[in-house]
Amino acid sequence: MARTRKKNEMNAGELNLTAMIDVAFQLLNFFVITSHPVSVTTNLDVFRPSEDKTANPTKPPTVLRIMVLNGGFTLNDQPVTLPMLHDKLDFITKGDKTQTVLIQCAADSRHGMLVEVLDLCNRLGLKNLSVISSS
Amino acid sequence: MRKHPDEYLSGNLTAMIDVVFQLIIFFVATVSLQDTVSDERIRLAMAPSGRPVTTKDPREVYIDVDKSGQIRIARFPYSHREVAFILKKIVQDNGNNQIPVIIRGDENARHDAVKNVMDACAAAGIWKIKFAALKERGG
């Protein structure tokens, strides 16, 4: 009788840790697989200019050339600030959002400035964006 | 009363195997996130007007460019020649050049470092590329 009581006391103090860990992992796996984090990133599409075999050489395409320099921007060789660039692009492309925008980046310009221009073009609904680099 | 030596060896193997399988599932579920997770050294530029990324192509190749100009794929540093070789191999294996390449450049990276990646894409015949940016800055 004394031996039985002693055995029961030991069982009452034991915890089945393996089962608890098992359930914890089950929950962890469930939340890892089912959770979808909110996306805060965006992808800005650009094209690299390649030879267009279907282009009609008799009709020159309308191209807007934006230069991204180390200290600022130019639009068709006219120095502009970012708000000015927005207004001018908006005015020029009001009727035709399919115009090709050629963005030329100087080698020493910051990548953030290129992203600013791409974002601005996105805001204006311009889709044909090509990025080239100048040495 | 002393235990028989065999009693010490007989653990609850079923529960142990269960936990081991749980760990395998956990690592299999999380290992695929490692390639696409953003490098904390790269501070992306802001583009509030960009469309949020809703669909993911499993063929997406992420190329990171940090502010010192170092190029990394899956956190492993490569030269631009190696990147060109890797992209050529990917294009060759897929049979077309419509591979989504996403360049995650630091906002303070010089353009010539990004240009090296764009040239590597061009060498592989990839003409359409994407630049990753942030829609909103986290706290």
Helix and strand layout, with pairings?
The complex is a heterodimer of chains A (135) and B (139).
Chain A: H1 2-13, H2 17-34, E1 41-47, E2 63-68, E3 73-75, E4 78-80, H3 82-92, E5 100-106, H4 111-123, E6 129-134
Parallel strand pairs in A: 2-5, 5-6
Antiparallel strand pairs in A: 2-3, 3-4
Chain B: H1 5-9, H2 13-31, H3 33-36, E1 61-65, E2 71-73, E3 76-78, H4 80-94, E4 101-105, H5 111-123, E5 128-134
Parallel strand pairs in B: 1-4, 4-5
Antiparallel strand pairs in B: 1-2, 2-3
Helix pairs in contact in B: 4-5
Describe this structure in a few short sentences.
Chain A is of the alpha/beta class and 135 residues long. In chain A, 40% of the residues lie in helices and 24% in strands. The longest helix of chain A has 18 residues, at 17-34.
Model description:
The complex is a heterodimer of chains A (135) and B (139). Chain A is α/β, with parallel strands linked by helices. In chain A, 40% of the residues lie in helices and 24% in strands. Chain A has 4 helices and 6 strands, in the order ααββββαβαβ. A 5-stranded mixed sheet of chain A has the order 4-3-2-5-6. In chain A, strand 5, helix 4 and strand 6 form a beta-alpha-beta unit. The relative contact order of chain A is 0.15. Chain B has 139 residues and is an alpha/beta fold. Chain B folds into 2 domains: 30 residues; 97 residues, Nucleotidyltransferase, domain 5 (2-Layer Sandwich), CATH 3.30.420. In chain B, strands 3-2-1-4-5 form a 5-stranded mixed sheet. In chain B, helix 4 packs parallel to helix 5. The model of chain B has no long low-confidence stretch (mean pLDDT 83). Classes of the chains: A alpha/beta (135), B alpha/beta (139). Chains A and B meet through helix 2, strand 1 and helix 4 of A and helix 2, helix 5 and strand 5 of B. Strand 1 of chain A pairs antiparallel with strand 5 of chain B.
Give the key terms:
heterodimer, A: 135 residues, alpha/beta, Nucleotidyltransferase, domain 5, 2 domains, five-stranded mixed sheet, 6 strands, 40% helix, 24% strand, B: 139 residues, 5 helices, elongated
